[in-house]
Amino acid sequence: MTKALRICFLIWVTPGLIFSLNTQGASSSDNEEFWKSVYEDNRVLNIEISITDENWRAMQPTPPQRTFGQRAIKSGNTYNYVQADIKVEGTSFPNAGLRFKGNSSYNSSSRGFKRPFKIDTNRFVKGQKLHGRTKLNLSNAFLDASYMKEKLGYEVYRASGLPTPGVGWTNVSLKIGDQERMNLGIYVLIEQVDDSFIKRHFGKESKGSLLMKPEVSTDWRYPGDDASDYEQFEIKQGKKNEAQIERFGQFLKSIDSAPNQTFFEAMNSFMDLEHLAGYLAASSILSNIDSYIGMPHNYYLLLDKQDNKIHLLPWDVNEAFGTFTLGQSPDVLADWDINRPWVSQNRLLEKLFKTKAFEKLYLHSLDTLMKSTFTETHLNARMTSFEKSILPYIEKTNSVRDIVAFDMAIDGDASGYNLAEGRAQLAIKPFIKKRIQSISDQLAGKRPGSTFNRRQGGPGFGPGPR
């Protein structure tokens, strides 16, 4: 990138209206226009976090222990909300809820201050809303110095027909007690998947549906008849929806009990298989292994009250574009076999892919994405647009390392590798180029794709070399 071009980016101003953040009495159309400016027009918000020393100490997580037989197993960090004063574009939200979030993204940054955060303006002061919404997810873009993978990744999922969270950016500063305010720099801002999200994307009749976010590998086994048995699926909303929980249990039973010759029809009565096919096509194209098809986690399950079907929704796609490797080489991820778009043991997918009807849905979604969205022309244009919005904030850090890492994450070195993250991975553009060529060859029947050389120990055998 030339110096002249960088100067142009520095003086570039995001177009759009200046919105008031005092949402009391604001119309729904005003609220939606505000979020459109953030998630679609790429307006970068300014967020200031102020927290007392005591609350900062109270925020620090302790890795929990879970008993399994005679052993205690770590099951991830538990984060507690504390009160903090939040300003968004100069408008105050006093005593808002603040906590950390994430697993690898938190652990990798826990010695510094640029950690991932979740803000809940309504947590301690009821009625505090930021243009109709209460929760903000601030991602520190773990392993993504471009800050673009979530934005691009969700757009691919959206093009496959799935409802997906809005993604934008925010510049964040932090003040702890009497210390000087620190500029933490650019964060990726991600819309919360909650009842409000469900209502907007599925309709008001879907409000109050059963929403789950499984974080433990169960291979969707039937856990039992008691509603408490379903806590392992991490119910976020609808814990009292006994009829829906019972239907979800019937679905889990049917994965094993439905006859092979009618398996597609049985699953289609319980699950939106077009959504599932679109999810798998997008995940395969993006080589998004840190997801339902890999670990498996980072997804939501919605049992919609309106159509009485289960919908699988993507979440946390910062390690798409072959970033999460499961010990494979970057070239294997770019050349991954499209005919088996999952890695971990998965009874449902193994049976579905033996049916011609589901294979047809999957291949149609894959082909549509390759022709419409996952093209170099389209994706490069999107990245150029994103760069205009976020590069000025990266420049303001006055860090040569940040600028070099930003460029390296997009274009890579002479061989296409991103050497800025301390992990062997392809930069975004070289990955896209290689993935397009591989899938095109596979669809044309010229050659098979690469298969994973799996280590012992199942799906959780690590994200590759550091």
Question: Can you give a write-up of this model?
Answer:
The chain is α+β, with helices and mostly antiparallel strands and 466 residues long. Among the domains are: 17-198, no CATH class; 202-322 and 347-363, no CATH class. It contains 15 helices and 13 strands. The strands form three sheets. Strands 1-4-5-6-7-9-8 form a seven-stranded mixed barrel. It has a four-stranded antiparallel sheet with strand order 11-10-12-13. Helix 1 (3-11) crosses helix 13, helix 7 (242-257) packs antiparallel against helix 8 and helix 9 packs across helix 12 (356-372).
Protein traits:
four-stranded antiparallel beta sheet; seven-stranded mixed β-barrel; 15 helices; disordered C terminus; alpha+beta; disordered N terminus; globular; 466 residues
Short structural description:
The protein has 466 residues and is an alpha+beta fold. The protein contains 15 helices and 13 strands.
Q: What is the radius of gyration?
A: 22 Å
In helices, the fraction of residues equals 25-40%
Instruction: Give the uncertain stretches in residue-range form.
Output: 1-22, 67-74, 455-466
Going by helix content, strand content and strand pairing, the class is alpha+beta
Strand content: 15-25%
**Overall body shape:** globular
H/E series: HHEHEEEEHEEHEEHEEHHHEEHHHHHH
Task: Explain the layout of strands and helices.
Blueprint: H1 3-11, H2 28-39, E1 45-51, H3 53-59, E2 65-68, E3 71-74, E4 82-88, E5 91-100, H4 104-107, E6 117-120, E7 135-139, H5 149-159, E8 167-176, E9 182-191, H6 195-202, E10 210-212, E11 235-237, H7 242-257, H8 263-270, H9 273-286, E12 299-303, E13 310-314, H10 330-334, H11 347-352, H12 356-372, H13 376-395, H14 400-411, H15 428-443
Parallel strand pairs: 1-8
Antiparallel strand pairs: 1-4, 2-3, 4-5, 5-6, 6-7, 7-9, 8-9, 10-11, 10-12, 12-13
